[in-house]
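User: Predict the structure for this protein chain, please.
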Amino acid sequence: MKKVIILLGVLGMGLLASSQINVIPITDTSLQIKKNSLVYFLPQSLIHLKLDVKTTKFIPGPFYNFAEKYLSIDDAPKKAYTYSDILGVEFMQVSSVDPLAGFIILDNKASLSFDNRGVITAYNDNIDNQSELNKIQYQNLPEYFNLDSPHYTDYGVKRNFTGITDTTYKVIQLDSVFQKIPVYNTVITSKDFEQKAEEAANYIIKIRKRRFKLQTVQFDDERPPKDLVRLIKQLDKLERQYLELFIGKEISVNNSFYYTFKPEKNHKSGKIEIFHLSEERGICQTAAEDTEPVYLKYKNCQKTKELDNFYKRQTKLKEKEKTKGLYYRIPGHGSICVEFDNHTYAKQTFIIPQYGSLTNLPSKMFKNKQLKIIFDAENGSIKRISNE
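Assistant: Here is the predicted structure, written as structure tokens:
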């Protein structure tokens, strides 16, 4: 082990004298360095997903049995039901530091530029390339329906009681003559359901009449109201609210699910269960009898496959190259889609750095003092090489 350290020390001194650099991956456990040196990283891509889910519950109107009788509405829905669906999928690609793509430069004279993550941006050039930190708040806490709250509270515009008059008779004596006279008794009682339905239907008809007069310019005054459009909209809204008593209404809850996917170089393709969807409850974290899985499917397009095979065949070249220049990436491509119930809701192709090839520049080219290299801080690739 001491011999290895001594040899590395001699090698380091020779490199400094010739301005030639040597770069060592931090994953290389076979070498040891004598002192601290510059360290830089290459980036990787993470894919943030946001899935919007809408859960809708239909509630029949309390007067559905009288819809045909009073409003001539056939087949008013009588059964409650709930359904959920994915409204949309949003992909967001975020550049992050690849902890396995770190490198040590055995040359303290190297002039390097980094962003605020430690990712290399330039060699022998000043590049102000600070990455934007993506702050995403994750809240996978679905909101469900409040079943305790009343769904229908407005049944009419008149009082809820009605008077029922009952007639009885009593006999009185007038001048030795007995007479039978009526006695009227009024009893206050609550209106039954059909009476309430009839009043609601009559109120709908009144609303329609009032709106018809406004639309056909039948005003009490010669001049139309200044807010005519608003009045008609208010009547439309009021009519819909009372129609819901007969035809029912829907209430909805919107939820969002967040997931972060990290593509791996050695994963060619596959799918992941990211959450489960229930018709009744919407987003569910665990599987149940009433749920179906939502999948994230990924695929490495292997755009750099032939390049990887080419480098693997260069075993003799690797043996001759004792020192390495700066490492960089040739990014690959990957496709990601969201699938539910055999239906693809979203699909997109991304430039994925870690799906590409990791290679290095020749160490000898760094003897050139005029050499300048600009790196892409998002992908780890080389943007420009110059001798200026």
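Helices lie at 2-18, 67-71, 193-215, 228-247, 305-312, 315-320.
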